[in-house]
Amino acid sequence: MAALPKLLLGPPAPKTSADSSSARTKPPKGRTENSSATYLSSGDPCLYLFFHIVPDTPSSYINKQLPKSWAHNALTTLKLICNLRGVRGTGKSDKEAFFTAAFWLHTNHPKTLACNLASFADFGCFKDLPEILYRLLEGQDIKRSVAAVFNKGKRPRYSSRREPREERVVNATERAKSEKEKASVLRKQKFAAMANKAVSRYERDPDYRFLHERVSDVFAECLKSDLENLNSAQLNRISLAAKWCPSLDSSFDRATLLCERIARKVFPRESCPEYDGVLEEHYAYRVRDRLRKEVLVPLRKALELPEVYMGAQKWSSVPYNRVASVAMKLYKETFFKHDIVRFSKYLVDVKAGEGEHCGRCAAAARDHRLEFERRVTELRSFSGREWWRI
Q: Where are the domains of the chain?
C-alpha cells in the first residue's frame, strides 16, 4: 500500500515563556453538591472540542468551539479534527463533524488543510478529499439538501377513469417522452453550469486552487505508486486510491473536474512524444481516457472490488470476503436474490470461523456492525424459506 505521511503539519507558532503560560487566567471556582471546592470548568477549549462533539452536534457549535480551541493549541486542535474522522479505531468516525471542521479550516487556515490532505485520507478515506472540494463548490450542507429532496419522493399521479384505456396509454407515453426530453436538456444545462462554476472558482480563488492541486497531487502520486506495485506483483501494497478516485464523468468529476487534473499529472505532456503539437483539448481528452483504461481499470480489477463485479452483473464472481460490513448490510437482499447458494455458504463459513472476511473494511465500521453472528441472524430472517431450502 502506498505510504501516506503520518506527520501532521501544524501552523508555525511562537514560543511562549514560562511566565506568560503561568499568567493565564485560572478557571472560576465553585462548590459541589457536598459543598466541596471545585473548578466550574476545565478552562481547556481543546477538552471541550473533544468531549462535547458527538453525532448530530450542530455545526454552529463546532464552528463556535474551533476558534477557541485553535487559539489555545493549534496542533492539538488539528489532531482532534483528525480524531473526528478516524474510522479504524482511531477516532469518532463522525463524518459530518469532520467536514464541518474541514470547511472551517479551509476558511481560516487553508494551507494547513491542503498540506495535511494525505494524513486526513489516512485517518478517514480517499473519498473525503474530492468530497471536500465538492462541498466547497456546492455548499457545506449539499449532501443533506440532496437527501431531503430525494426523500420527498414523487407525488402519485391520478388519472381519470373516464378516459378509455387506449387514450390513457397514449397520453402516458407522450408525457413520458416529453419529460425525458426536458430532463435531457436540463441535465446538459446542469453539467455545463457545474463545469463553469468549477472553472470560475479555480481561476479566482487561490486557496481553492491550491487545495484542488494538492488533492490531485495525492491521487496522482498514489496511483503512480500503485501501478508500480501492480507491475511488480506486490498487490498487498496497492492502496485504495483507484477505488475512490472519481470515475470519468461521475458526479464528483463533473462538479470538480478532478479527473482531468489527475490525468495530466499521471501522464504529463512531456512523457509521450505523441502529445507534441496536440491541441490542449485533445490532449486532455486523451489523458483522461488513458487514466481510465491504463490506471483505474487494472487497479480496480487487482483490488477485486465487489462493485466491479456487481456493475457487470457477474454475481457468481463477487468476492464476499472483500465486501465491507456497511456494504454487506446494504446489499444483503441483492446478494440473496442473485447468488443465494454462494452467499449462504459464505455466511455459514463465517459463522463457523472458517471463512475470511475483509478485516480492513470491517474495521472501518462501528463495533455493533462488526457482529457477524447478528448479521447471519438478520439474513436468515430475511429469507428463511430460501435458506432452509438449500
A: 142-146+173-303, 314-389
DSSP string, 308-331: HHHHTT-GGG--GGGS-HHHHHHH
Q: Which residue has the cell 407522450?
A: 174
Q: All 3 cell numbers of residue 95?
A: 463524518
pLDDT at site 310: 86
How far apart CA 81 and CA 66 sit, in angstroms, is: 9
* Nine cell digits for residue 286: 486523451
Give per-residue pLDDT as tens, 82-124. 999 998 778 898 999 999 999 999 999 999 999 999 999 999 9
Q: Centre a 10 Å sphere on the Cβ of residue 36 and count the other Cβ atoms it contains.
A: 8
State the DSSP H helix or E strand holding residue 30, giving kind and residue range, or none if neither: strand 29-31
**C-alpha pair distances (Å), 211 with each of 49, 117, 135, 256, 257:** 25, 9, 13, 12, 13
pTM over 0.85: no
- Grid coordinates representing 21 are 503560560
**Helices 280-290 and 258-266 sit at what angle, rounded to 10 degrees?**
80
Kindly state the cell numbers that stand for 11. Answer: 501552523
How far, rounded to the nearest angstrom, does the alpha carbon of residue 10 sit from its chain's CA centroid? 23
Per-residue confidence band for 14, with pLDDT thresholds at 50, 70 and 90: low
Phi, psi of 96 (to 5 degrees): -65, -40
CB distance 146 to 251 below 8 Å: no
Q: How far apart, in Å, are the Cα atoms of 234 and each of 7, 116, 238?
A: 25, 27, 7
Q: Where are the alpha helices (DSSP H) in 153-164?
A: none
